[in-house]
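User: Could you write out the 3D structure of this protein bound to iron/sulfur cluster? I've included everything you need below.
Assistant: Certainly. Input first, then the structure.
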Amino acid sequence: MLQADAATAPARLIAGGATILGASVLADSSIEHYRGSFHHPAMAVPIVAAVAAIRVNAAGGRDRSSVPNEPLRDPAQRPERRPRTPAHAAIAAAGAAGLGFHGWDIARRVGHLRWSTLFYAAPIGAPAALILSGALGAAADALATRDPRLGPLPVGGRFVGALAVIGLVGTSAEAALLHFRGAFHSPWMWLPVTLPPLAALALARDTLSGVPKDTSWALLGATALLGFVGAGFHARGVARNMGGWRNWRQNLLVGPPIPAPPAFTGLALAGLGALLLMRRGHG
Amino acid sequence: MRADALTTPRAANGRAPDVFEPGGWVPMREHREQDEVDFAIVGTGAGGGTLACKLAEAGFSVVAFDAGAYWRPLEDFASDERHQAKLYWTDDRIVDGPDPLKLGSNNSGKSVGGSTVHFAMVSLRFRPEWFKSRTKLGYGVDWPIDWREMWRYYAEVEEALKIAGPVRYPWGPKRPRYPYRAHPLNAAAEHLARGAEALGTDWAETPIATLSAPHGKAHPCVYRGMCVIGCSTNAKQSVLVTWLPRALAAGAEIRDLAMVGRIEMGPNGRATGVHYHREGEWRFQRAKNVVVAGYAIETPRLLLNSACSRFPDGLANRSGLVGRNLMVQLNQAVWGQVDEEIRSYKGPPSLAINEHWNYADAGKDYHGGWAYMSQGPLPISWARSLSGGRGLWGRALIDEMARSNHSVGLKMVGEVLPYAHNRVTLADETDQYGLPIPRVTFAIGDNERRMVAHALDFMEASLEATGARERWRETDDTCHLNGTARMGFDPETSVVDADCRSWDVPNLWICDGSVFPTVGGANPSLTIQALACRTADRIKELSRRGAL
Ligand SMILES: Cc1cc2nc3c(=O)[nH]c(=O)nc-3n(C[C@H](O)[C@H](O)[C@H](O)COP(=O)(O)OP(=O)(O)OC[C@H]3O[C@@H](n4cnc5c(N)ncnc54)[C@H](O)[C@@H]3O)c2cc1C
Ligand code: SF4
C-alpha cells in the first residue's frame, strides 16, 4: 500500500503526461482528419476520445469525489475502487480501433506494404497514442487508490515505466519513419530519433532493475523539453512551404505536424513519474 | 509577370536575378569583351548550365550565353498554358521528311536554364548496356564512356538536384538511395501501378526532379501540376534554380537575351570567341575555349553556320556528321475512361513509371528499349491530343473535354535508332537575327514502328486491366531531341571525343544531348547533366596537365 504523499506527485506527472498525449492527439488528428475531409464518419472518433482524455486526465492523480482538486493525503481515506476506469478504457479502445482502421488503409493501398504506403497512408502508430493516454490515465487514477492495480497488474513505477518505454519506442519509430520521408534534410531531424530512444533505453533499464539512475532523469527531462523544441522546429517547417505562414490554411496541413512532437513530452513526463515512484520505493 | 525580361537583359550591371526572391538580385561578376575568358558557353540548359557551374567552381572564368530570358519563377510564372509559351523556342524552323517533327513546347526551350525550365522532371539513369549497345545488344553504336563512370556522375547529379525517388529502384544495377523520398502517387499513377501488377511486371514511383522536402530556399512541391509550363514554387529542380545560382556564386557570368550567331576561328585553327546579338547589336566576346550547348537543333545549326574558309562545311565537321543522326524519342500513348475521378493534373505528370521493357530483351521483335509513365495533361494540351491525336472536333470535342477528369493514360518514352538521314541542315531563309534557320528532316524506321506496336499493345493491356473503357491510341507524338554531334572513338565516325571536345578544333567543346550516340528508352536530362559534370572533371584534368 502506498504512503500518503508518495503517490500524489508521480500520479500527477503521469496524469499530466496522459493529458498532453491526449492534447497532441486532439490537435494532430483534427488537422489530419480535416485534411482527409472526414470522409469516413469514424474519423471523428479520435477527436471525441482525445477531448475525453484531456478532461478525464487533467483531474487525474487525485480523487475528485471526496476532496475536490486536492489529492488525498491519508491513504485510509482513499477509495477502494477507481471511479474512471470505464472512461480510460473507452479512450484506449478508440485508439485500438484507430490502429485497425489505419492498418486497413495501408492494406488496401496499391503496392501494399511499401515505403510510400507507410509514408503517405494513414500513420500506423498515431492512434496508439490514445491507447497510451488511456492506460497512463488509468494508472494515475489507480495510484490514488488503496490497492493500485489495473486488472491483475499492480500499478507502480515499473508498470508505468514499461508503458512509457513502449510509448517512447513507438513514437520514436514513427518520427524515424516520417523524418526518413523528409530525408533528414535538416540535421536537427536526427534529435527525435536519438534522444528519446536513449531515454527509453535508460528507463527500460531502470524499469527492469527498479532502481532509477541519474542519467535516466536527465534523458527523460531532455526528452520532455524536446517535445516543445520539436513543435518549434515543425512551425519553422510549415513556414518553409510555399507562401509560409501567410498561407497557413494550406501549409498547416502539408507541413510537418506541429502537435506531434509534444507527444514526447507527455511520455517523458509519465517516465519521470515512474522514476519518482521507483525512487520512493514503489516499484 | 514582368514583360521586360523578354526585351531588356536582366543579368547586367554586376547583378543577376535572384530566382528565390520576387524582385531580388544576386551579385554577378562581369567580364569585358576584350578579355579572353577561359570559357564562353553557348546555352545555359541541362548541358551548358551544369557545365558553367562546374567550371566556375573549378576556378575558370566563364561567360554563359542564352538567347532566352532570365526568369524569376516566383513572380514570372503564371498557371496559364498560353502565357507560359514564353518559355518555348518558337523561332522559325523548317520541318520536313516522311515524318516531320512537331517542334515547340514538347521539345525545346528558350530561357536561362534551357528546356529544364519547363521539362517534366523525370530523371532516369540509362541502362548500363546502352553505353555499349553495339557490342552488347547488337544495334546502334557504342559510347566511348564506361557505364560505371557514368554511374558516379549520375549520383552526383541526383544529389545536387535532390531527386525524389523510391527507396529501392527495381531495375538495373545497384544504385545509391535517391536523396529525397518519392512523392505520393496520384490516381493516374495508381492506375499504372495496378496495371503493371496485373501484367506481372514491376513498377516504381518515378524518380523526379521536384522536392519532396525543402532544400535551401526552395519550397517542396505543392502538387498543382503546372510543371511543364514552368514551376512557380521553385520545387522543380531546373537548371535555373540549381546549377545557375551556384555558378553565379562561384563567379560565372550569365548573359541573357544573348543569341550567339557565329563562332570565330583564328588563323591557327582554334576558336577565338563568339559573335552574339544582344540589345539590338552584334557583339564579340573573346574566349580561350568555346562550348556549344544549344540542344540538338541549335548546336549543329551554330556549328554549320560558323563555316569559314578553313572549315567550309562547318566547324567540327570533318566526318560530315554534324547535324546527322538526329534522334527523338517515341512518345505514343494509350488513353481510356474510368469511373473514378483521376484529376491527373494533380501533381507532376509522371509519378509512376514502368521501365520493364528497357531492361528486358526477350520477346521483342525490334532493337532498343522503352519505358512508360502515367500522364497529367493540362487542358490545352489535352484538347490538342483530343483534336489532333483523336480527331475530335466541335460538339464531340467539348463533350470529351467535359469528361477529362475521368481520363487516364500511359505514355511511352521509346528509343529511336540513329539514322544518318535524320538531320539538321541550314535553310535559305533567315530569322530575326539574320541567321539561316535550321531545316529538320526526319523519318522513323521499321524498327521504331515495331516498338510502337508492342508498346501500345502493352500499355493498352495495362489500362484494360484497371478497368479503363473506350480506349484509344495517340500515335503521332515525339519528345526529346538528341544526337547531331555524336561522341565516339575516332574523328572519322564522330564529332567529339569522350571528353566532348571536338576532334577538329581543340578548344571547341559540345556539351548537351547532341553528343549522344544513342538515346535509349529513358528521358535524357539526367544523362546530359552527368556528362556535363564529367566533362568539367575532364577539363580540370586536362588543364592540370597543360593539355587544354
Ligand atoms: C516539355 C518538355 C518535357 C521534358 N521532360 C523531360 C523529362 O521529364 N525528363 C528529361 O530527362 N528530359 C525532359 N525533357 C528534355 C530535356 O529538357 C532536354 O533533354 C534537356 O533540357 C536538353 O538539354 P540541353 O542542354 O541540350 O538543351 P536545353 O536545356 O534546351 O538548353 C539549350 C539552351 O540553349 C539556348 N540556346 C540555343 N542556341 C543558342 C544560341 N545560338 N545562342 C544562345 N543561346 C542558345 C536555348 O535558349 C536554351 O536555353 C523535356 C523537354 C520538354 C521541352
Ligand atoms: S506540381 Fe510541384 S513541380 Fe509541378 S509545378 Fe507544382 S510545385 Fe512545381
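Residues 328 and 481 of chain B are 5 Å apart (CA to CA).
User: Perfect, thank you.
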